[in-house]
Amino acid sequence: MATKILKRSTSSVLKSRVESLLTGASRRSYASVAVGTDIVSAAPKVSLQKARSWDEGVSSNFSSTSLKDIFKGAYTGVCSQQHVPSYKENIDKFKAKGIDSVICVAVNDPYVMNAWADKLQAKDVIEFYGDFDGSFHKSLELGKDLSAALLGPRSERWSAYVVDGRVKALNVEGAPSDFNVSGAEVILEQI
Prior knowledge:
By secondary structure, this protein is α+β, with helices and mostly antiparallel strands. Helix content is about 40%, strand content about 20%. The chain contains nine helices and eight strands. The strands form three sheets. Strands 2-1-4-3 form a four-stranded mixed β-sheet. Strands 5-6 form a two-stranded antiparallel sheet. The chain is globular.
């Protein structure tokens, strides 16, 4: 009897999570970050870890980087096949507009970020940072629970044009699989 209750309970919880994931776009609240937000002030106690190998982590004593010193999920289809490549392919256009750096932040550890950057052959043109516990994205209300899809805590797919820590343009996709407003082509038009 307990097994049947557990199965039924697990099944209804899973069904509820899947339904919330599928309808999440229509119920999505807007993030606390918006145009004009000072990202450093919005997430004052957050630091990120730059993508690196284990040996680099050991030699740096596993240091992290404060947001004030630097200012999206690794390996997923849209991220790997569309999102990051759109920035890599347009890096010269960003440089021509005076952009100092293109930064990719994802809820992951710096070692996964390092391997992902290597796989995408983008390490030389994009800076990759790991938000290992999601605190950066939570601080900006850009965190997203994708546990129903077996991905755990992640972030919204988003892009921002940030000048001296202040958001000048912000684009947040409506659903995890969307790639309509956060690509390089859109943000280039906003700069």
